[in-house]
Amino acid sequence: MLEARIEQASVLKRVIEAIKDLVPDCNFDCNDTGIALQAMDNSHVALVAMLLRADGFSPYRCDRNIALGINLNSLTKVLRCAQNEDMITLKADDAPDSLNLVFENTENERISEYDIKLMDIDQEHLGIPDTEYSASITLPTAEFQRICRDLSQLSESVAIEATKEGVKFSCSGDIGNGSVTLRTHQNVDKPELSTKVDLTEPVNLTFSLKYLVNFCKASSLSQTVTLSLSNEVPLLVEYKMDNGYVRFYLAPKIDE
Amino acid sequence: KIFQGQIFKFFLEG
Questions:
Q1: A3 closest CA partner among A102, A133, A126
Q2: Does B13 contact chain A (CB < 8 Å)?
Q3: Residues of chain B contacting residue A128, judged by C-beta atoms under 8 Å apart
Q4: Which helix (H) or strand (E) holds A145?
Q5: Which residues contact A249 (CB under 8 A, 6 or more apart)?
Q6: Nearest CB to B4; choose among A126, A127, A251
Q7: What's the confidence (pLDDT) of residue B11?
Q8: Which residues of chain A carry a pLDDT beneath 50?
């Protein structure tokens, strides 16, 4: 059986909020390393991979592989019943038809308990190869969100060009064109506001802004985001957490 | 024209 207690409901709330619009129904794969998820969006253009490592829970117990097929809108409704500072305990049997959630508030001794019905979800699991990316760009999450939001006003797609000097996001649309360039720099006082580019060769790829804007719903998970690019492979957008990650993969636009 | 690729093609072939 699964028993996993997380100290702060807000962590789980933010993770689900980050992915629910992209993948409304998905399997949470639980085993002794933690709770993982991999799912493609309906159009098969983007893929979400999430991991909450076992050491982010206390206690964590899961002796065999358990798949929890969950509708994330249902889970969101139940998580709204938890306060951010509540502890959440997740419980499920070995062959579960429901997931049990207990919210505990130690301050006012309030305990609430919910069960969500599970679904059978037939999900294709993709093998994601370990990739040495040509460019990895780490930038403030809020900056990436702003760039995506700004450029999406002008165009459906954005070209991301990484060079030694920095990264340039540019777009063109019916009303005109626009670009934002971030030069590599280090903020000593606030390292999370730095922009860093690790580059083995320059890259220039085009992506759908609609998806990137959607990925930015994960902005509350981390102060920085890493974009990893190589020519002709999907973009990796990674939000790291203390005990896990949310990764989004997005297929590039291709000239035909 | 620019077409969006489908993600699974990259990972199955990759």
A1: A102
A2: no
A3: 11
A4: helix A141-152
A5: A46, A47, A48, A49, A128, A234, A235, A236, A237, B7, B11
A6: A251
A7: 83
A8: none
| CA–CA gap between residue A100 and residue A89 (Å, rounded) | 8
Residues in chain A: 256
Residue B4: its chain A contacts at CB < 8 A? 45, 208, 251, 253-254
Q: Which of A147, A209, A205, A214 is nearest to A179 (CA)?
A: A147
Record: contact A45-B6, CB cut-off 8 A: yes
| pLDDT at B14 exceeding the cut of 50 | no
Query: Going by C-beta distance under 8 Å and a sequence separation of 6 or more, which residues neighbour residue A124?
Result: A40, B8
The ipTM of this complex is 0.82
Query: Which are the contacts of A86, defined by CB distance < 8 A and separation ≥ 6?
Result: A8, A9, A103, A104, A105
Q: The tokens of A23 are what? A: 């993948």
User: In angstroms, how far is the first alpha carbon of chain B from the final one?
Assistant: 25
Asked if A237 and A139 touch (Cβ cutoff 8 Å), the reply is no
